[in-house]
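User: I'm new to structure prediction. If I give you an amino acid sequence, what do you actually give back? Let's try with this one:
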Amino acid sequence: MEAKGESGKHLTIIPPYGYMKSPDNPNQWIIDEDAAIIVKKIFRLCLEGYGPAQIAKQLKAEKVLMPYAHWQQTGYNKYFKTN
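Assistant: Good question. You get back a string of structure tokens that encode the predicted 3D arrangement of the chain. For your 83 residues, that looks like this:
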């Protein structure tokens, strides 16, 4: 696995929140623009001194979808078992 990572290949088949697989090349990840807005917001709040619970509370108040719900809404739920 170390050699795979050092060669620049992804270590997981599921892109992290904020990215998605390219429709042209599933081995390439591209930015998920909708999720990237949320990731940037979380990072900014963290830099402003907010803790995880405070950030979660704010995102919940703003009705921001959790990653799994976002993936379901955008059609990426195929990565997870639904049973």
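You can read the tokens as a compact description of the fold. Here is one thing that stands out. Residues 2-77 form one domain.
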